[in-house]
Amino acid sequence: MNSKLNSDQGHQKDALLNCVLDKAVRSGAQHAAAFFETSRSSTLRFARNQATQHKFHEDGTVCLAVAVESREAIAETNRTDTGGLEALAERTVELAKSSPPNPEFFEPVGPQIYRETTSWFQSTADLTLERRARAIGAMCAYAEDHDVDLFGNLETEIGELAVANTSGLYVTQPFTRVKLSLTARTRQGNGSAQFHISEADWSALDTEKALEKTVLTALMGRNAAPLDPGRYEVILSPKAVSEYLMFLFWAMDARMADSGQSFFAAPDGGSRIGEKIFLDSVTLSSQSDHPRLPGLKFGQAFGSGGSSAGMVFSMGLPLQTTEWVRDGVVKNFRYSPYYAVKNGRAPVAYPHNLVMEGGEATREDLIRDVQRGVMIESFWYVNPTDWNRIALTGLTRDGTFLIENGRIAGPVNSFRFNDSPVNSLNRITGLSRPEKIHGEYLASLMPWVRLSDFNLSAVSSAV
User: Fold this and answer.
1) pLDDT of 245-260, one tens digit each?
2) If 0-12 CB within 10 Å is exposed, 13-18 middle and 19+ buried, where does residue 168 land?
3) 3-state secondary structure (DSSP) of residue 341
4) How many CA within 13 A on the CB side of residue 281?
5) Which CATH entry fits the domain spanning 7-214: 3.40.50.300, 3.40.50.1010, 3.50.50.60, 3.30.2290.10?
């Protein structure tokens, strides 16, 4: 589990993809795309300050998408022998023939030009079970010393993803991943905190810092005092910012805007591209080669007429650096492959990260200027209530604190909030430098953000 695929394995992988594509064409497919993903993952789980389970999984999966005219189908198998590949091709083509036509069909993407990225790190590939167990043992001992129960898992994964299709595309890249998930809870049940981080490089994962922050936040949250709902100046952690802004990012879809079904639709038709909507301090982007956000150089697109086969036909598109908002001005939208081609644009892969530029303040600087407000460590169960306003509701959780006279006065009850990132990004009063966080959906670089007039609409009993 400590080296990349050798040349013989690479030739086998190429031959496998060529074989399944050839069999699909021979079975009647006019278009076909396939990917082969190999993965070896190892997960150590722990609960109440002791290891509870080790799970190891190794697999190689072939996924095939085909089109007969505009009728599509998709299937997968982990049988990589000749018989298994032939059965996969025949079954997928038969499914396509019996499927209705897809009015938004597009052919598999052709050969692409990629910006090289680093996705493989030997520090992760060489990580032994013993070393990970020692890391977990140290974390559990630290939690025990602080009278806190620690739960979570530490997962490593080594793999390679190879993609080929009948349009002549072929791309492959090995990858490593390590994920740490922590939840700390006081034994009295009156304080809780969580932390999630994902890295490709084990040596970049600061387990000590993650642990200390999680345990400290749980301890600080004990015996929350009651606080009435209302509109407050708030400070959001990078994790909370990530969970909040994802809905704004999802709303930045060209098709929704052009059809008038979005906040980003212009009142007189068309979209609000080029319009200044937010404060000058707001800049959002996705970056394909950011050194703190390593990943694959390619991906797939979404939103292709509801077609899963279309997602495979789009696999292999290059990840690109895209500015969504620059100095408060809307610069770009996301396009599905079908809608991109329809509008004379090149389709691009769905981004793997989201980055918000910050400022020079520290968290303590942001707190110091608040006379009375609330600091929020995390949001939970966030959902839209009105996409045309990007109005959201959700709960604060895992650390909600009252700020008085420039200091954290103590923990308070959690809240339900009802507000919109559209409003919030026009009420920013301070930003820290961005920090890496793995939110619920994407790896992100987000700052601590101070906002005025945030609507904490009701008290929640969540801890």
Assistant:
1) 999 999 999 999 999 9
2) exposed
3) helix
4) 17
5) 3.30.2290.10
